[in-house]
Amino acid sequence: MKFGLPAKEQSWTLENGRLELVARCGGFANCDARFRVEVPATLTVLRSGQPTDLRGG
Asked: Can you tell me the distance from the alpha carbon of 43 to that of 57, in angstroms, rounded to the nearest whole number?
């Protein structure tokens, strides 16, 4: 079940080894965006600069 509208704009940038994913909503606070990123299994994945339980594989 989806609750939000599709994001009005989705983009990504890769700079200095840092991948940034952006989804902008158009007038709504809740929208959906999906990105698929594949990374090596040994890479630590950060979210908002903090480590997560996500791992490559």
From this structure: 9
